[in-house]
Amino acid sequence: MTAGADIQLRPVTEEDRPFLERVYCTTREHEMALVPWTDEQKLAFLRQQFDAQWVHYNIHYASGVHSLILAGGTPVGRLFIERRASEILIVDIALLREYRNSGVGTRVIEPILAEAALNGKAVTGLVERWNPSCRFWHRMGFCLTPQDELYYRIEWRLTAPAANPSPDSSRKTPTGPA
């Protein structure tokens, strides 16, 4: 993909499920490398987890917008957001491995931030504490605040707090309002 490839979103259809499952599986590769299962066992587990996530998202975020991310017309990832009265919740964003760190994520998130700024909303979500994307969220201007033992709550506002330390810094929580 070239840096200038056209990035588009289109609504997910039932026919996109095999691709979405593939994207999901790539986000769990690191975890699956740690378990002593056969490739078939790993795939069966990941398919079960994907199906459970699909049901969960459709029940708990029924008004959400689930989109396929296209780069130059090629499916490269997924985005699931829910627009609420005071925030835009990023339920999920994931890219195929070969499109990570290519600028696609930035080009998907920037219009969401612009929409939020225009409408006086925050942009929020959760990210696993171990996830390499924590650096991406920090670069995009999000505050990362510990939610629990597994997750950071990510939050972006047009008027960001004065200090926004990286999750890799020695401080556990950012200063300023959440």
Structure description:
By secondary structure, this protein is α+β, with helices and mostly antiparallel strands. The chain has a domain of 113 residues: Gcn5-related N-acetyltransferase (GNAT) (Aminopeptidase, 3-Layer(aba) Sandwich). 34% of the residues lie in helices and 27% in strands. The chain has five helices and seven strands. Strands 1-2-3-4-5-7-6 form a seven-stranded mixed β-sheet. Helix 4 links the parallel strand 4 and strand 5. The longest helix is centred in the N-terminal third of the chain and has 22 residues. The N and C termini lie far apart (36 Å). The C terminus is likely disordered.
Largest sheet, spatial ordering of strands:
1-2-3-4-5-7-6
Task: Assign a percent range to the helix content.
Answer: 25-40%
**CATH class call of the domain at 8-120:** Alpha Beta
> Strand pairing plus helix content: what structural class?
alpha+beta
Helix and strand sequence: EHHHEEEHEHEE
Low-confidence stretches: 169-178
The CATH fourth-level homologous superfamily of the domain at 8-120: Gcn5-related N-acetyltransferase (GNAT)
Number of strands: 7
Average of per-residue pLDDT values: 89
Biggest sheet: strands, sense, closure? 7 strands, mixed
The general outline is: globular
Separation of termini? 36 Å
CATH topology of the domain at 8-120: Aminopeptidase
Strand portion, in percent? Answer: 25-35%
Q: From the coordinates shown, what is the CATH architecture of the domain at 8-120?
A: 3-Layer(aba) Sandwich
Q: Report the radius of gyration as a whole number of Å.
A: 17 Å
Number of helices: 5
